[in-house]
Design a protein that fits this description.
Blueprint: E1 13-20, E2 25-31, H1 40-55, E3 65-69, E4 73-79, E5 84-91, H2 100-113, H3 127-149, H4 154-247
Helix pairs in contact: 3-4
Length: 248
């Protein structure tokens, strides 16, 4: 699932969790399941530890960054002041273990994006929320790959830091533009549908009006013919009466 080359799993975030610390309810998660079948026990252990951390009393560590070391993984987690719980699990051979601040930076970035609020009526991430979470993690891993795997100079680190900020800003802007475009498209579709309905309604009204006018004309013609027949009949009757009178 990760964009990073699968031959190099040392940079992969194995598991990422968003939850509500106050209600102790899971909102959504991301899992790099590229080799989960080979490490099912590790995965179960991570999920178990994640639930234990979520359900423990963490009221005293809000806003702080924490770490838990397992046999094959390190778990990094933090709880925001608004009671949102973020957790990331990476393998101990991951380069992220050497630059732990990047994981917490990712958590803060995802929190600022507001992905936690893209939920359904059950309080769980919608498909859009899941896609945004997956996209954010994969793009973050991809953008930090050179930082994690190369011996960079101070200048390179500053340069990549600026690039990362640009990527995040572009992502935020692209999401905003995408939302605006979708809203505009929906609005245009609604306007188009309404215009289509109005046109169809006007056509129907026009057809009905033409039919009514046609019926009126036909009725007028029939009435005119009937009147002419009556007049002719009266004239013939008068002529016959005159002829009979003269003969008698």
């Amino acid at each position: 699932m990760s964009i990073i080359d699968k031959s190099d799993t040392t940079t992969s975030i194995y598991y990422f969790l968003i939850a509500n610390q106050e209600t102790q309810k899971e909102i959504g998660n991301f899992l790099d399941n590229s080799d989960i079948n080979n490490n099912i026990n590790d995965f179960n252990n991570i999920v178990l530890k994640s639930r234990e951390l979520l359900k423990s009393d963490n009221s005293s560590i809000k806003g702080k960054k924490n770490k838990l070391s397992l046999e094959n993984h390190n778990i990094y987690y933090m709880i925001t002041n608004s009671d949102y719980f973020y957790l990331a699990a990476v393998r101990k051979n991951s380069q992220y273990c050497k630059k732990e601040n990047l994981l917490f930076e990712l958590m803060e970035d995802i929190d600022h994006q507001g992905i936690k609020k893209l939920v359904d009526k059950n309080g769980e991430l919608t498909n859009v929320g899941k896609q945004n979470l997956k996209f954010s993690i994969e793009k973050y891993q991809e953008s930090n790959l050179s930082k994690l795997t190369n011996k960079n100079s101070l200048f390179d680190l500053i340069l990549h830091s600026n690039e990362d900020q640009t990527i995040k800003n572009n992502f935020g802007n692209s999401q905003l533009i995408k939302s605006k475009n979708e809203a505009k498209l929906n609005q245009n579709n609604n306007i188009g549908e309404n215009q289509g309905l109005n046109k169809n309604s006007k056509r129907k009204d026009k057809k009905i009006k033409i039919r009514k006018n046609s019926y009126k004309i036909i009725e007028q013609i029939k009435n005119l013919k009937l009147r002419n027949l009556i007049i002719i009949g009266i004239i013939i009757f008068i002529i016959i009466c005159i002829i009979i009178y003269l003969i008698i």
